[in-house]
Design brief:
306 residues, alpha/beta, four-stranded antiparallel β-sheet, 27% strand, Ribosomal_L11_MeTrfase_PrmA, S-adenosyl-L-methionine, EC 2.1.1.-, ribonucleoprotein
């Protein structure tokens, strides 16, 4: 399989995407060509935000093409079909991709994972084996996670940082909101550690389904929903492991759901994004760095009584 990518202006992006699918592309994806720069444009936002823009000013278009098809010939055919020239696109690149079974790859990678001395992440494939091997370690909390199509296996630094913070701070009976729950790993671990009422929220229906399934596997009582259906409440711990830009946009929303003297925990933040995130929350909760791993940072702050 081959990957063809190029940049183009907003005016052309829909025409090009449709034309490549007409010429039997396997898939077409579009992203902001200026992502992670000062020119980045946040046009796809969290529920509650609105925009009248549906494409970025500069778009990176990525097309997956069958192995035996020449990507340059396909590109030329598309441009000719649309009456365009190569002057309408730039930064053309072609990459050969290896065929990988991503689900099997993720499920087989270095499991079981001991995130902390007492939090062990396992998959359904090695669940029984792990329990048999470690059945003498009664103080270990086993979290069985099948990520499916959702984010959160415990292997990424952003997730392990959050798990480590929860292990250090959950005492007994705390209420927890996991915003952007993915596989549900943080919410489920919170319950295993002794939290009380835990709510897991995500905008992705596949993540919601995955989190519900994982909660059943772990025999925990977890409330899982999308943002529109989440209970109107505040929590002793609000934790969000997503990305820097959405975290900044939701500063007011997330902060407002933290109880007085409760904690806000944020992850999914690169070290060069820390100042921007802290500034976005400065009017609500004073954040500070808890830990950094491989360039990823976990921030936390207490909602002191004002």
């Amino acid at each position: 399989m081959k990957e063809l990518s190029f940049y183009c202006d907003a005016f052309y992006v829909d025409f090009l995407s449709d034309a490549f699918m007409h010429f039997d592309a396997l898939s077409v994806s579009i992203e902001d060509a200026d992502a992670d720069s000062l020119s980045e444009e946040p046009i796809f936002l969290e529920p509650g935000f609105s925009t009248d823009k549906f494409h970025w000013s500069r778009n990176k278009v990525t097309i997956l093409i069958k192995e035996k098809v020449n990507p340059i010939e396909t590109l030329d055919s598309v441009l000719d079909y649309l009456g365009m020239s190569d002057k309408n696109i730039d930064c053309v690149s072609i990459v050969d991709l290896k065929e990988l079974d991503w689900v099997s790859l993720v499920q087989s990678e270095q499991y079981p994972i001991f995130v902390t001395e007492r939090i062990c992440i396992i998959t359904s494939q090695n669940y029984i084996t792990s329990i048999n091997i470690n059945n003498t370690l009664s103080n270990i909390y086993y979290i069985e996670i099948n990520p499916g199509l959702a984010f959160g296996t415990g292997s990424h630094p952003t997730t392990s940082l959050c798990l480590s913070w929860l292990d250090s701070n959950i005492r007994n009976g705390e209420s927890v909101l996991d915003y952007g729950c993915g596989s549900g790993i943080l919410a489920i671990t919170s319950l295993k550690l002794g939290a009380g009422r835990v709510v897991a929220v995500d905008i992705d229906n596949q993540a919601i389904s995955c989190a519900k399934s994982n909660a059943i596997k772990n025999n925990v009582d977890l409330i899982v929903c999308n943002p529109e259906d989440m209970p109107v409440d505040t929590y002793e711990i609000v934790i969000a492991n997503i990305l820097s830009k959405p975290l900044q946009l939701m500063a007011n929303k997330l902060s407002s759901m933290v109880q007085q003297n409760g904690y806000l925990v944020l992850s999914g933040i690169l070290s060069n994004q820390v100042k921007d995130v802290i500034l976005a929350y400065s009017s609500y909760i004073k954040l500070q760095v808890w830990k950094e791993v491989d360039g990823w940072v976990c921030l936390y702050g207490k909602n002191f009584i004002k």
